[in-house]
Amino acid sequence: RWKGIADDTQPHIWYDYHHIISNSSYSEYECEQPWQRILVLANGDVNRCSCGTLFPDKIMGNIEYDTIESMWKSDYMNHLRWCHENHRSELIESCVNCPMRIEWILNRNKKKV
């Protein structure tokens, strides 16, 4: 159904990990999404990652007013990439409790046991 419209479509399964883990500010985590993907929402807002839309700081712009190239190369995205590259993603509020980050922490902690 989406052939020719999108490269890939996937359903999202949401989990609430907040009751499982109390400290999700591990700085070793490096998210790949700032270099890989964006998410265009039904209203045209462009989200910087596919880990949910609950945080307003994830919105890069809107395809009605901004080009994808300008959003992708923006100071906002460059700062986000810098934070992840330099293991400082805890500076980004929405990244601290990101489901992918928490999943990584949980898996990392299992390996230590």
Automatic annotation (TrEMBL):
Read off the Pfam families from this record. Answer: SPASM
InterPro entries per the UniProt record, alphabetical: 4Fe4S-binding_SPASM_dom, Aldolase_TIM, rSAM_sf
Instruction: Give the protein name, as stated in the record.
Output: 4Fe4S-binding SPASM domain-containing protein
Q: What range(s) does the 4Fe4S-binding SPASM domain occupy?
A: 31-99
CDD domains this protein is in?
Answer: SPASM (cd21109)
Organism equals marine sediment metagenome
